[in-house]
Amino acid sequence: MEVVPVEISFGDSTIGPDQPVYVVAEVGINHNGELSIAKKLIDLAAMAGCDAVKFQKRTPELCVPPAERDKIRETPWGPMTYLDYRKRIEFGEDEYREIDAYCKKQSITWFASSWDMESVDFLEMFSLPCHKVASACLTDDHLLSRLAVTGRPVILSTGMSSMEEINHAVSLLGTERLVITHSTSSYPCLPEELNLHMITTLRNAFDCPVGYSGHEIGLQTTYAAVVLGACLVERHITLDRNMWGSDQDASVESTGLFRLVRDIRVIETAMGDGVKRIYETELSARNRLRRVQ
Considering the domain boundaries, does residue 20 fall inside one? Predict the structure, then answer.
């Protein structure tokens, strides 16, 4: 028997099977540590009609493994250690306060994925509508438990995870304020590895809304996710896919983002309610072409 997912409130919005698809533009780290780029991406998301923009928040000293910290990485700012690189692209309180004010000005919601417990405490300063768990953090029990006690809704991304790991994460977070997003953590992801029917699998397994976080190239498969019932859709966005950065290649540029939001709204209108009816626009053809009434 299919489970009927509950609805979840995200600030002024509601996420659920009978609600408009909640469209999240994932800025992530595509700002490359530049506030001016972040603001342009916020502008893009707002103009395209997205519901929210999402960032990523890390404490580099906690998130970078010790074995990786001193490795030299070539960057647009010259060679530097991986730890210094992570610090270079990380926004602090001043930048996020400006992002918070700018999103209010643009009338768009923002939130972020927390990669460590210090980042949860940091983001709690802003009274955000929800928290996001990145796929890489799904097995971090301490982080999930910390998020659970905030009382805020949580979006749980499930890339690179087994069903056993997902079940355990859900047991820590509960389903009362949870949205689960199906995802495959390849950048960019091949169509044959998207496994979109997992949206149905997750919806049948858990009593909460299910969404889709895509890392593919193109938009067609994201539309398919909406048809399969994704209540929330998240795609990375960029000003230019040729920009430097690990996530740029799997991101959507401005033209694609406008098309994505527009077409999602057309699709949800076209899905209807599943009740067969004769529309008034059919009557002329019915009266003209039907030989037996």
Answer: yes
Task: Give residue 22's domain range.
Answer: 8-289
pLDDT at 1: 42
Count of structural domains within the chain:
1
DSSP secondary structure string, the chain? ----PPPEEETTEEESTTS--EEEEEEETTTTT-HHHHHHHHHHHHHHT-SEEEEEE--HHHHS-HHHHT-EE--TT-SEEHHHHHHHT---HHHHHHHHHHHHHTT-EEEEEESSHHHHHHHHTT--S-EEE-GGGTT-HHHHHHHHTT-S-EEEE-TT--HHHHHHHHHHH-STTEEEEE----SSBPGGGT-TTHHHHHHHHSSS-EEEEE-BSSSHHHHHHHHTT-SEEEEEB-S-TTSSSTTGGG-B-HHHHHHHHHHHHHHHHHH--S-----GGGHHHHHHH-S--
Token code pair at residue 66: 């010790």
Residue 135: predicted pLDDT: 97
Q: Residue 293's pLDDT is what?
A: 63
Q: Which residues contact 29 (CB under 8 A, 6 or more apart)?
A: 56, 89, 245, 246, 247
Whether residue 69 is contained in a domain is answered as yes
CATH number, residue 186: 3.20.20.70
**Res 6: pLDDT:** 77
Instruction: Confirm whether 2 is domain-assigned.
Output: no
pLDDT of the residue at 11: 84
Indicate whether 277 belongs to any domain.
yes
